[in-house]
Amino acid sequence: MNPTYDFNGQVALVTGAAGGMGLDTARAFAAAGAAVVLADVDEDALRTATDDLATDGHQVLGVPCDVADEEDVASLVDRTVDRFGRLDMAFNNAGIMLPPTDAADEPAENFDRVTAINMRGVWACMKHELRQMREQGSGAIVNCSSLGGLVGNPGRAAYHATKHGVLGMTKSAALEYAPRGVRINAVCPGTIETPMVAAMISNGELTVDDAIANQPIGRLGRGDEIAAAVLWLCSPGASLIVGVALPVDGGYTAR
User: Fold this and answer.
1) Does pTM surpass 0.85?
2) Is residue 159 flagged as an active site residue?
3) Which of 162, 212, 248, 252 is the least buried, fewest Cβ under 10 Å from its Cβ?
4) Could you say which of 5, 159, 177, 252 is catalytic?
């Protein structure tokens, strides 16, 4: 059973919120009483997710956003504050993974695309969230890295570079903003049951057996388990936690 939190009167923003870990985290924030802003580039899925939360009685706003476009991100934060008056918590979750490629053959456009979303996107989100949180003098940000931010894997040089980069940004910004009342941390998910992982399995990049074999806990992770870690990092229970890269990976990186 997960801990329960009282986030009534607080506002949470989640990117990549139309499915997978992002949607599970948005639901968890809403269940804990927060007003939630869902952002995603998939407008149809975003509308469905937002409508479902609204139907359940939650305060929710859906904002189409491409995190690779800084103007989109700035507008996202502005709309959040215009609607709810503040921003207390953010999960910068939006990201992509491209098919594995030999490091000697990877096209530059692949590198540019994965970097624009996974690393520049987190940079832009954190930048504009911090402008609001700096003014408030409070806030908590969780960036989504990956087990790929802690280790390497063949064929994933560009992807892992972005996830290592997220940890560098997290640690540096955390040191800068801890004295100003804003805590910044990162989660490093292992192989989680998400649409992204399902696509990897369906196209032959990954098998369920191999994924399970690499996680000592003996199963894939669930999106709600990532949500539980994010909510804890945003909660008063993690009040002394600053600049960490928290593996949520069933033991993958403990080996």
Assistant:
1) yes
2) yes
3) 212
4) 159
